[in-house]
# Entry
Amino acid sequence: MKKILKYILIIALVALVVIQFIRPEKNEGGYESVNAFLEETKPSSEVAALLKSHCYDCHSNQTVYPWYAEVAPFSFWLADHVKDGKKHFNVSDWAQYSAKRKDHKLEELVEEVEQGEMPLPSYTWMHGNLSKEEQKLMMQWAQVARLQYKMELEQLED
# Structure
């Protein structure tokens, strides 16, 4: 029994070492990809800083990776986390969204922040959470930004 356990541990250790040489693709497209989003939604400097520090890592083409992103299996978990976040909302693709989709994404942002669903708990462990005041600022900005898309949609309906 001890021999089998020893072989299992050796195989697990070898697998852990080997997996360190397999790297997932990094999400490092640059912050210039968020310019269309910033120009259109016009966040205050404080909201822009909150977006950069709490949202862009998972919802843009630019991620600032923590030190543990270099260690597998965490690197794979983070890559999947970013891929999933971008699938739901990617501010780097903002220019390609329709007015209806932009309105919907901002509506979801308000709901997620209001319900405490965003940022995710797994993100806030290392990066901290939004304070109540920061949540309020974020939601107010998103609601004001939605107005332009609502007007655009109303004009299309007329």
Q: What stands out?
A: The chain has a mean pLDDT of 87.
